[in-house]
Amino acid sequence: MPDEAALQRLLDRQEIEDCLLRYTRALDRGDWDQMALAYHEDALDDHGYFVGRGQDLVKWSAAFR
Predict the structure, then answer these.
(1) Taking Cα atoms as reference points, which of 18, 26, 13 lies closest to residue 54?
(2) pTM surpassing 0.85?
């Protein structure tokens, strides 16, 4: 039987996966408000060609639509 820490790791992992799926779905559909929800207020994102705040990446992405 899994211990409590192992169960928590699984729950945390699922929460991260759910967030990533919401992010990619929002990006694919151009749903910028939903995409912005994937980021904490102070989040930084580094895509190589874009490095900056998560909220700024959302604005940057919307400019290409």
Answers:
(1) 26
(2) no
Whether 55 contacts 38, CB under 8 Å = no
Instruction: State the amino acid at position 22 in one-letter form.
Output: R
Alpha helix (H) residue ranges in the chain:
4-29, 32-36, 54-62
Q: Give the mean pLDDT of 9-18.
A: 97
- Helix (H) or strand (E) run with residue 51 in it: strand 51-53
Is residue 2's pLDDT more than 80?
no
Q: Are 27 and 36 in contact (CB under 8 A)?
A: no
| Residues forming a β-bridge with 6 | none
